[in-house]
Amino acid sequence: MEAYVIEWLSMLLRWLHLIVGIAWIGASFYFVWLDNSLRPPRDEALLRKGVAGELWAVHGGGFYNPQKYLVAPDSLPAQLHWFKWEAYSTWLSGMALMTTLYYWQAGSWMLDPARAALTPPQAVALGIACIAGGWLVYDSLCRLLVDRSALVLGAVYFGFVVAVAWGLTHVLSGRAAFLHVGAMIATAMSANVFFRIIPGQKKAVAQMQRGEAPDPALGKLAKQRSVHNNYLTLPVLFCMISNHYAFVYGHDHAWAGLALILLAGALIRHFFNQRHRGQAQWRYPLAGVALLAVVAVWFAPASGAARAGEPVDFAQVQQVITARCTACHAQHPRLVAAAPAGVLLDTPDRIRAMRERIWVQAVQVRAMPLGNITHITEDERELLDRWASRGDN
Ligand code: HEC
To answer: By three-state DSSP, how is residue 68 classified?
Structure first.
């Protein structure tokens, strides 16, 4: 029953997280595009009012004419929309999903006994420490390097993220490590909105309500953080989908592959930012694609050439699968509510049909059995390897 409840919670939370995440990232993409597409107004009256840029657009049958004020308009409108719940609800639903899937079931989703002998509470504490500590480090870096260029700050933060990825992939399961790198970055992005951007804007509005000119430094700080958020969107989204791809997170050098993919995401984002300004430079996305190609070639599995050794008796294979896999991968599994990913390994035909995927998951990337909860041995993995790669039986 508990497994069934977890499945429902996780399905609903994932749905919610995706919806609010789209609203947040969509608004972020829109505003960056808008900012980069503004052109100085031709109308003198607008310039005198303090409008620094405007844009004309048509969408859904209507014409739109957003205008950006350099600091702020002379008087505030009665209705002012704040963009914040998109970010907050993404973080809240994301943490709820993380708790349901990873913290509630840390034994199977977070641990990898082949990497470190952690207990589930230790793994959960490590995960939470990364998420919270990651924000403190990022925020301190922003203050310490306030006078340095955005590139220096970006390089130092990237180094920190890679160090965390290296550490986590040595102690947690690959998927938990990747997801925590993503959650750490995404938490810094939401905290930027919650602790820096919105309070800065609130202060500026309060200053205006008192009839003072708003402090331009507040606007600059909010802008700096929102630029960071913009460059982090594609890297974070990769981390969020990475748990489907054991060939990346399960690799021996998964942390290095992750670093290159995150970098590729930021480079591709940079290209779009420039393109909106009419300054597209193709070397950035090309460099990004080259990095992805490096990972693809580097992580390609060794050819499945037949291993030397005795032919394998299928009865032995079935015995291993039954002992180590069917607690989850069966029509009526014992440990989960329904066979995960629809993978059924409870008859000889089904096992044979899944030969290739069994090899990938249990031998090559060693993502299965999940958390090695059913204690598969090295000899058994070797048996599966010989069976899958020989192609007989
Ligand atoms: C504790 C439960 C559990 C056990 C035991 C287990 N698995 Fe899985 N398996 C899962 C879950 C959960 C997923 C879905 C992973 C996901 O959603 O990314 C999965 C997914 C898979 C997939 C599909 C992955 C893909 O995306 O292609 C294969 C193949 C697989 N398991 C094979 C095995 C084999 C072989 C064994 C035994 C050696 C095994 N599993 C043991 C829980 C388990």
So the answer is: strand
**How remote is the CA of residue 304 from the centroid of ligand 1, in Å?**
21
Residues 240 and 337 in one domain: no
- Give the nearest ligand 1 atom to 108 CA: 1
Tell me what pLDDT residue 113 has: 86
Give yes or no: residues 102 and 209 share one domain. Answer: yes
Domain that holds residue 161: 86-298
Q: Which residue has the tokens 């440990």?
A: 335
Examine the pLDDT at 98 and tell me if it is beyond 80: yes
Task: Give the predicted TM-score (pTM) of the model.
Answer: 0.90
Two structure tokens written together for 108: 């199977």
Quote the number of domains for the chain: 2
Sign of CA pseudo-dihedral 285, 290, 295, 297: positive
Residues 293, 328, single domain; the answer is no
Query: Within this chain, do residues 368 and 223 fall inside the same structural domain, yes or no?
Result: no
pLDDT band at residue 304, thresholds of 50, 70 and 90? low
Tell me: do 211 and 351 sit in the same domain: no
* 157 and 288 together in one domain: yes
Q: Which of 104, 105, 370, 382 has the most ligand 1 atoms within 8 A of CB, as the residue to mutate?
A: 370
Q: pLDDT tens across 248-259, in order?
A: 999 999 999 999
Same domain, 189 and 267: yes
CB atoms inside a 10 Å sphere around CB 213: 10
pLDDT of residue 307: 62
Instruction: Calculate the dihedral angle through the C-alpha atoms of 249, 252, 255, 257, rounding to the nearest 10 degrees.
Output: -80
